[in-house]
Design goal:
The protein is α/β, with parallel strands linked by helices. The protein has a single domain, classed as 3-Layer(aba) Sandwich (Rossmann fold). The protein has helices at residues 46-53, 76-85, 102-112, 117-130, 146-158, 176-192, 204-207; strands at 4-13, 20-30, 35-39, 61-66, 69-70, 87-90, 164-168, 196-200, 212-217, 220-226. Helix 3 crosses helix 4 (117-130). The two termini are 22 Å apart.
Length: 228
Amino acid sequence: MSKILISQLKKTYGQGESLVQALRGINLKIEEGEFVAIMGPSGCGKSTLLHLMGVLQAPTEGNIEIDGKSIKGLSDDECTRIRRQEIGFIFQFFNLIPILSALENVALPLVLDGVSQDEANEKAKQWLDRVGLSDRMSHLPGQLSGGQQQRVAVARALAHDPAFILADEPTGNLDSKSAEEITTLLREVSEKWEKTIVMVTHDPRMSSYANRIIHLKDGIIVNDNKLA
Protein backbone atom coordinates (compact mmCIF):
# COMPACT_ATOMS: atom_id res chain seq x y z
CA MET A 1 0.00 0.00 0.00
CA SER A 2 1.31 3.45 -0.92
CA LYS A 3 1.87 5.93 1.89
CA ILE A 4 0.38 8.70 -0.29
CA LEU A 5 -1.71 8.05 -3.40
CA ILE A 6 -2.73 11.03 -5.54
CA SER A 7 -5.24 10.59 -8.36
CA GLN A 8 -6.12 13.16 -11.04
CA LEU A 9 -5.49 16.02 -8.62
CA LYS A 10 -6.51 19.46 -9.84
CA LYS A 11 -6.54 22.82 -8.11
CA THR A 12 -7.84 26.09 -9.51
CA TYR A 13 -8.03 29.56 -7.99
CA GLY A 14 -10.32 32.41 -9.00
CA GLN A 15 -12.82 32.31 -11.83
CA GLY A 16 -13.49 33.73 -15.26
CA GLU A 17 -10.59 35.70 -16.71
CA SER A 18 -8.73 35.51 -13.39
CA LEU A 19 -8.87 31.68 -13.25
CA VAL A 20 -5.53 30.10 -12.42
CA GLN A 21 -4.95 26.37 -12.92
CA ALA A 22 -2.33 25.62 -10.26
CA LEU A 23 -2.49 21.82 -10.71
CA ARG A 24 -3.78 20.17 -13.87
CA GLY A 25 -4.23 16.47 -13.13
CA ILE A 26 -1.47 15.08 -10.91
CA ASN A 27 -1.09 11.31 -10.49
CA LEU A 28 1.51 10.26 -7.95
CA LYS A 29 2.40 7.37 -5.62
CA ILE A 30 4.78 7.89 -2.70
CA GLU A 31 5.91 4.77 -0.89
CA GLU A 32 6.85 4.11 2.74
CA GLY A 33 10.29 5.52 3.60
CA GLU A 34 10.82 7.48 0.39
CA PHE A 35 12.56 10.86 0.52
CA VAL A 36 10.99 12.82 -2.33
CA ALA A 37 12.11 16.24 -3.55
CA ILE A 38 9.63 18.31 -5.55
CA MET A 39 11.19 20.94 -7.79
CA GLY A 40 10.14 23.39 -10.46
CA PRO A 41 10.03 27.08 -11.36
CA SER A 42 8.08 29.62 -9.33
CA GLY A 43 4.35 29.20 -9.93
CA CYS A 44 4.63 25.61 -11.17
CA GLY A 45 2.33 24.27 -8.41
CA LYS A 46 4.82 22.62 -6.06
CA SER A 47 3.71 24.50 -2.93
CA THR A 48 0.06 23.98 -3.85
CA LEU A 49 0.71 20.24 -4.15
CA LEU A 50 2.38 20.21 -0.74
CA HIS A 51 -0.54 22.12 0.82
CA LEU A 52 -3.03 19.65 -0.61
CA MET A 53 -1.01 16.70 0.73
CA GLY A 54 -0.98 18.43 4.11
CA VAL A 55 -4.79 18.77 4.06
CA LEU A 56 -4.30 22.54 4.35
CA GLN A 57 -6.47 23.07 1.26
CA ALA A 58 -9.08 21.01 -0.55
CA PRO A 59 -8.55 19.96 -4.17
CA THR A 60 -10.85 21.25 -6.90
CA GLU A 61 -10.94 17.76 -8.43
CA GLY A 62 -9.28 14.42 -7.76
CA ASN A 63 -8.38 12.64 -4.57
CA ILE A 64 -5.60 12.00 -2.06
CA GLU A 65 -5.30 8.83 0.02
CA ILE A 66 -3.11 8.65 3.12
CA ASP A 67 -2.34 5.08 4.21
CA GLY A 68 -5.22 3.91 2.04
CA LYS A 69 -7.76 6.35 3.49
CA SER A 70 -9.31 9.00 1.27
CA ILE A 71 -9.44 12.59 2.53
CA LYS A 72 -12.36 13.44 0.24
CA GLY A 73 -15.41 14.79 2.05
CA LEU A 74 -13.81 14.89 5.50
CA SER A 75 -15.13 17.35 8.06
CA ASP A 76 -13.03 20.29 9.23
CA ASP A 77 -12.50 18.52 12.56
CA GLU A 78 -11.23 15.37 10.87
CA CYS A 79 -8.91 17.38 8.63
CA THR A 80 -7.54 19.11 11.73
CA ARG A 81 -6.98 15.74 13.41
CA ILE A 82 -5.05 14.45 10.38
CA ARG A 83 -2.85 17.54 10.32
CA ARG A 84 -2.11 17.28 14.04
CA GLN A 85 -1.63 13.53 14.34
CA GLU A 86 -0.66 12.07 10.98
CA ILE A 87 1.47 14.76 9.29
CA GLY A 88 4.64 16.47 10.45
CA PHE A 89 5.30 19.93 9.01
CA ILE A 90 8.68 21.65 8.61
CA PHE A 91 8.65 25.25 7.37
CA GLN A 92 11.24 27.65 6.00
CA PHE A 93 10.99 30.05 8.95
CA PHE A 94 11.05 27.49 11.81
CA ASN A 95 7.84 28.82 13.51
CA LEU A 96 9.20 28.31 17.01
CA ILE A 97 7.70 30.11 20.00
CA PRO A 98 10.43 32.52 21.15
CA ILE A 99 9.63 32.41 24.89
CA LEU A 100 9.74 28.60 25.07
CA SER A 101 12.84 26.43 25.28
CA ALA A 102 13.72 23.89 22.61
CA LEU A 103 12.27 21.16 24.81
CA GLU A 104 9.06 23.11 25.42
CA ASN A 105 8.65 23.90 21.70
CA VAL A 106 8.85 20.22 20.81
CA ALA A 107 6.63 19.05 23.69
CA LEU A 108 3.88 21.68 23.32
CA PRO A 109 2.01 20.18 20.31
CA LEU A 110 1.89 16.83 22.10
CA VAL A 111 0.46 18.39 25.26
CA LEU A 112 -2.14 20.27 23.20
CA ASP A 113 -3.12 16.92 21.68
CA GLY A 114 -3.78 15.38 25.09
CA VAL A 115 -0.43 13.72 25.88
CA SER A 116 0.66 14.06 29.51
CA GLN A 117 3.40 16.58 30.20
CA ASP A 118 5.82 13.88 31.38
CA GLU A 119 5.31 11.74 28.28
CA ALA A 120 5.53 14.79 26.00
CA ASN A 121 8.80 15.84 27.62
CA GLU A 122 10.22 12.34 27.25
CA LYS A 123 9.38 12.19 23.55
CA ALA A 124 10.76 15.70 23.04
CA LYS A 125 14.04 14.76 24.75
CA GLN A 126 14.31 11.62 22.63
CA TRP A 127 13.97 13.47 19.33
CA LEU A 128 16.12 16.43 20.36
CA ASP A 129 18.84 13.94 21.20
CA ARG A 130 18.38 12.20 17.84
CA VAL A 131 18.76 15.47 15.93
CA GLY A 132 21.92 16.33 17.86
CA LEU A 133 20.60 18.88 20.36
CA SER A 134 20.87 17.01 23.66
CA ASP A 135 22.97 19.88 25.04
CA ARG A 136 20.62 22.64 23.82
CA MET A 137 17.25 21.49 25.20
CA SER A 138 16.91 24.36 27.69
CA HIS A 139 17.95 27.07 25.20
CA LEU A 140 15.45 29.57 23.80
CA PRO A 141 15.21 29.89 19.99
CA GLY A 142 17.04 33.24 20.16
CA GLN A 143 19.99 31.45 21.75
CA LEU A 144 20.25 28.97 18.88
CA SER A 145 21.68 29.29 15.37
CA GLY A 146 19.37 29.04 12.37
CA GLY A 147 20.46 25.48 11.74
CA GLN A 148 19.85 24.53 15.37
CA GLN A 149 16.40 26.13 15.28
CA GLN A 150 15.52 24.09 12.22
CA ARG A 151 16.71 20.95 14.04
CA VAL A 152 14.25 21.81 16.82
CA ALA A 153 11.55 22.15 14.14
CA VAL A 154 12.50 18.72 12.73
CA ALA A 155 12.26 17.18 16.21
CA ARG A 156 8.88 18.84 16.72
CA ALA A 157 7.61 17.44 13.41
CA LEU A 158 8.70 13.92 14.37
CA ALA A 159 7.76 13.78 18.06
CA HIS A 160 4.16 12.65 17.48
CA ASP A 161 5.27 9.84 15.11
CA PRO A 162 3.48 11.12 11.98
CA ALA A 163 2.69 9.02 8.92
CA PHE A 164 4.89 11.31 6.83
CA ILE A 165 6.77 14.62 6.88
CA LEU A 166 6.11 17.60 4.61
CA ALA A 167 9.00 20.07 4.35
CA ASP A 168 8.39 23.38 2.55
CA GLU A 169 11.76 24.92 1.54
CA PRO A 170 13.26 23.78 4.87
CA THR A 171 16.71 25.14 3.98
CA GLY A 172 15.58 28.38 2.34
CA ASN A 173 16.43 30.51 5.39
CA LEU A 174 19.81 28.89 6.15
CA ASP A 175 23.41 29.38 5.07
CA SER A 176 24.83 26.72 2.75
CA LYS A 177 26.60 24.75 5.51
CA SER A 178 23.51 24.61 7.74
CA ALA A 179 21.35 23.79 4.71
CA GLU A 180 23.46 20.76 3.90
CA GLU A 181 23.40 19.64 7.55
CA ILE A 182 19.59 19.85 7.68
CA THR A 183 19.14 17.97 4.39
CA THR A 184 21.59 15.32 5.57
CA LEU A 185 19.51 15.03 8.74
CA LEU A 186 16.31 14.60 6.71
CA ARG A 187 17.95 11.82 4.70
CA GLU A 188 18.98 10.14 7.95
CA VAL A 189 15.42 10.45 9.26
CA SER A 190 14.18 8.74 6.09
CA GLU A 191 16.77 5.95 6.12
CA LYS A 192 17.34 5.29 9.84
CA TRP A 193 13.78 5.76 11.10
CA GLU A 194 12.05 4.87 7.81
CA LYS A 195 10.06 8.08 7.67
CA THR A 196 8.42 9.21 4.44
CA ILE A 197 9.48 12.76 3.56
CA VAL A 198 8.22 15.07 0.82
CA MET A 199 10.34 18.21 0.44
CA VAL A 200 9.73 21.22 -1.79
CA THR A 201 13.01 22.89 -2.76
CA HIS A 202 14.38 25.17 -5.46
CA ASP A 203 17.97 24.12 -4.76
CA PRO A 204 19.39 21.25 -6.89
CA ARG A 205 22.09 20.62 -4.26
CA MET A 206 19.47 19.94 -1.61
CA SER A 207 17.36 17.77 -3.93
CA SER A 208 20.39 15.53 -4.52
CA TYR A 209 20.01 14.19 -0.96
CA ALA A 210 16.58 12.76 -1.83
CA ASN A 211 16.14 9.33 -3.41
CA ARG A 212 13.48 10.57 -5.80
CA ILE A 213 13.16 13.92 -7.61
CA ILE A 214 9.90 15.11 -9.18
CA HIS A 215 9.85 18.14 -11.47
CA LEU A 216 6.67 20.15 -11.99
CA LYS A 217 5.96 22.66 -14.72
CA ASP A 218 2.70 24.51 -15.33
CA GLY A 219 0.83 22.29 -12.86
CA ILE A 220 1.84 18.90 -14.24
CA ILE A 221 4.63 16.41 -13.57
CA VAL A 222 7.23 16.61 -16.36
CA ASN A 223 9.88 14.36 -14.82
CA ASP A 224 9.99 11.74 -12.06
CA ASN A 225 13.40 10.24 -11.34
CA LYS A 226 14.22 7.62 -8.73
CA LEU A 227 17.85 7.83 -7.64
CA ALA A 228 20.12 5.09 -6.36
